[in-house]
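Hi all, a correction to my earlier message: I attached the wrong file for Lipid/polyisoprenoid-binding YceI-like domain-containing protein. Here's the right sequence:
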Amino acid sequence: MKFTKLLVIGSLFVSSLFAASYNVDKAHTNIGFKVKHMMISNVKGSFSDFKGTFKYDEKNKKLTALNGEIQVASIDTANEKRDKHLREEEIFDVPKYPTITFKMTKMDGDDVYGDFTLKGVTKNIKLEFENGGTITDPWGNERAGFSLEGKIKRADFGLTYNSVLEAGGFAIGEDVKLEIEIEGIKVK
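and the right structure:
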């Protein structure tokens, strides 16, 4: 048992030796989501103010670290009135909970696990990883890109605001689908 643990720790250490550090490129990254509206369609949104870093092991085509922070006030659903309501106390309560954070805890196959914190609640969530690979851009910067998709339940994070529809059901779906496209520039 001890040998197995040492082997796992050793392989993680060796993998991190091959991993390069990247800063998230905000101009080529999208932190998006969608949620059911009136049970018949989806409302899409994104956040425009965020920062993050990751480590990517090109040899093994996997992440060894990922950390991100989103400023909730930057939410944009293409409807100013709705965005203002989302920032208010009964939903995101931006003055009290200004950030959403994610810190990767492990990668298993094509799944990335991490501690996701929203409205002061932290839960370990799973996101599906799609590797975009690496490239050198025309200016000599090394870049890496990937996609992450998953879902969370709003109520798990205290997002319980909703209204009942006359025809039955709720105005806002319980599941929030996360759709994240990340591109980073290697730290020199």
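Sorry for the mix-up. Helices lie at 2-18, 80-87.
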